[in-house]
Design a protein that fits this description.
265 residues; alpha/beta; 6-stranded mixed β-sheet; binds fe (ii) ion
Length: 265
Amino acid sequence: MRILFIGDIYAETGLKMLQRYLPRIRKDYKINFTIVNGENISTSGKGIKKSEYFALKDLEVDCVTLGNHTWFRDETKKLIDEVSDLLRPANSNIHQPGKGTQLFNVGNTKIRVTSLMGRTFMADLSDNPFCKLDDILKDDNSDIHIVDIHAEATSEKVALAAEFDGRVQAVIGTHTHVQTADERVLPKGTAFLTDAGMTGPYDSAIGADLEAVIYRLKTGMPRRFVPAKGPAQLCGLIMEFSGSKVSRLKRIFISPQRPYEPNKW
Ligand SMILES: [Fe+2]
């Protein structure tokens, strides 16, 4: 069983990059199940519209996880209850629509995907992700459980992965948009990557146009962030499982300076 996780798709540039490479990656690496974080896919770099969700489904994406920008587009509130594979963080406020964990049957394998949000340095404080994942595991009978921890602090992602080592099959960080090079299998068998990285504009400040970001940081004056133009990158992680045991990990980073390498583990 090979599962591909793609990090935060950012705006139209990110979607186009995914359209260009996802079919090739799926074929070259014989991917059985694809998860993408889609909370930045909208044209502004925030949220997800119905048309963008369906563009991901056209690419045969199996599950879309979200994060702190889940509710940026009004239409998401309705869409999230109409489909089963669009997940907002499970530890969101209980009054929010949608759900944060879902079981998928892939052949004879039961794959669970859970979306969680961190609390350290995050503006929208969610419920405790450790307690929420404990709750989810009480009723879980999956063979492979993949957790997206959408969080700012690397320490929070590392701690969550360590706490659930051996109880879920993978913990993958999202949200910071800069891919970390620390993919590993933890002592009790859980695959871990602190951050999968971002799929979107390459010459940018985590997706946004550099000029506006530099202006705000340099002057302290307001200016709206817009998605950067220009070349793109794609970031993700391929996980190979034998039953419930992770057997191989392959980090993917495609950019103008790092060409795509087909089937090179
Ligand atoms: Fe985020």
